[in-house]
Amino acid sequence: MQDPIAYVLDDLLKLDDILACMVARQDMISVMPSDGTDGFKPEIHNIWDIIHRAMGDVFTVIREYSQAGLGEMDFRLQDYEALFYVFPDTENALVAIIPTLANKGLLEVEMENARREILKIMEAQQTAQM
Amino acid sequence: MNDLEFKAIVEVSRKWDGEEVARELSDKIKNKIASPKFILLFTTIHYEKEFEKILNGIKNDFPEPPLIGGTVAGFMTQEGCYTRGVTALAVEYENMDVAIGIGHNTKKNPLNASVECSDMLKKEIDGSNFSNKFLFVLTSGTIVPSLLGTGVKRVYKTKIPSSMLSRLLKTSFQTSQKGVGREDIILEEISKQMPEFNIIGGSSIDDNNMEKNYQFFNNNIYTNTVICLAIKTDKELLFDSQVAVEKTDKVFEAQLSGEKYIIKKIDNNPATKTFFEYLNWPDSFMDEKLHRRTFFYPILFEEQGEIFPEVIGGLIGNNIVCGFNLKSNNLCIGRSSKGILINAIKQELDNITKRGPPKIGIVIYCSALLETLGRDFYKVQESIKESYQNSPFLLIATGGEDFCVPNKILKHSNETINMAAFI
After folding, report:
1. Are residues B98 and B199 in the same domain?
2. Domain boundary residue among B302, B335, B368?
3. Which distant-in-sequence residues (6+ apart) come within 8 Å of B408 by Cβ?
4. Which of A101, A103, A112 lies at the smallest CB-CB distance from B371?
């Protein structure tokens, strides 16, 4: 059965300017959209490897400071921006790659909605395991 | 008529398919309201291919009440903040008369469109004897034209004389109905036609790219129109408008072109170059991200003690193109920030909720402010929820905001927050 978090990512990926999105932590992509990297917008494929490597460095910082309340990070690489929305008290983050020319503020609202929805799913999953 | 019989709801659908959106919204409305007096419906541009299904579905379930709406950059309700989705507001109250109107070709002939719309409203609403008068206006906002055959751009480094630019923009109005929304002219004319009405409204927009926008009138879809909902009721309404910008000491004299929204010179020097010097900005800032930077530094003019912020729409050579007519040559660079925005909404809520939480509120909020706030848009929601308690509200993010209290204030501008509330 598909992870319900993947459906949240699928919804996010339907927005034109979300070129790729995932839930990830250092050295590990935890959840991808239903179609994996095939669901990413084609323009991201050329730059995916370098963005993926840069993400690894960002997660070093997230791991170090998430417990201290680090909530959000981003970096710009060539014509793209990677946004990281950290899940509180974890080393996991919702990650999205957008074009630098995108209206970032509008996308941030939907990123936040996805983050909240994923958080609810994670909490429900934790409760079910207890 | 007692308070219990005033029913108002705001509902949201996040489904993607138009038929499912219509079914979900209709069901939610039906669960709470038997026979709405009117329905306001707003969607983000993502639903462009689903408009027909959404409108037909809702009108099929609610054939009687008039429905108007259109595209907005985002919206906020008690449920959450959204820049993708569909929302509907419905009100049921016996002591209320309503009428809807539409005016076409707003960019080509804004005055004719305003009169067409007002005539339609007056025919329906003039017979009503209720004393509180409220007009909601949604006008097709700016659509960036493709000048010089280079696609849709906001920044042209090409040197182009302002006289030629004026001609190009005028031609664009007539041939393709693209250009500034001319909402200032429309608001002024509608308020002249309907002088006793309090007005709030905004400019229909897409996802802040300003490439297209749509307006809904019952189950019809239009662009380049002004649509209105007129209400006469015995229910009391409160109105408030706040500017989310502060003045700076960067004051200058502008020379405007024939089209009063184009600044060709600042302090007798080329406008763009001088504006950049005032802000100590490097030339590298002159790119397609410019409008995201100028959200924080709008141009201001004052009229009768009121501040009118204008977001810069584009730079064409050394000309600065704004979104509506500048009514003064004495201008100032404004400054906005997240703190200023949050304070402005708090002030507005203090003014509106002095007598307790309203029954329902509608907020017109500049889409530039939404872009500026990003995920902190939720902080605005927290403030409104705290003041409104459990009462419904709908905030829509538009490309410009209209506000009119008869004999006091008449204003179309950017970076403002306007609120109307039934109390």
Report:
1. yes
2. B335
3. none
4. A103
User: Tens digits of per-residue pLDDT, B237-286?
Assistant: 999 999 999 999 999 999 998 788 999 999 999 999 999 999 999 988 88
Q: How do residues B135-160 score in pLDDT, each as one tens digit? A: 999 999 999 887 666 666 778 777 77
Is this model's pTM higher than 0.90 or not? yes
Return the percent helix, strand and coil in chain A, to nearest 5.
50, 25, 30
- Identify the domain containing residue A103 by its residue range: 4-129
pLDDT tens digit string along A54-84?
999 999 999 999 889 999 999 999 999 999 9
CATH number of the domain within which B329 lies = 2.40.30
Chain B residues touching residue A11 (CB < 8 angstroms): 14
Domain span at B283: 245-335
> What's the number of domains chain B is made of?
2
Chain B, window 190-209: residues with a beta carbon less than 8 angstroms from a chain A beta carbon: 207-209
CB proximity list for A32: less than 8 A, separation 6 or greater? A6, A9, A22, A39
Domain boundary among B291, B310, B335: B335
Instruction: State in Å, rounded, how far the first CA of chain B is from the last one.
Output: 14
Inter-chain residue contact A110 with B82, CB threshold 8 Å: yes
Are the C-beta atoms of residues A23 and A93 closer than 8 Å to each other? yes
Q: Which residues of A touch B (CB under 8 A)?
A: 11, 14-15, 72, 85, 100-101, 103-113
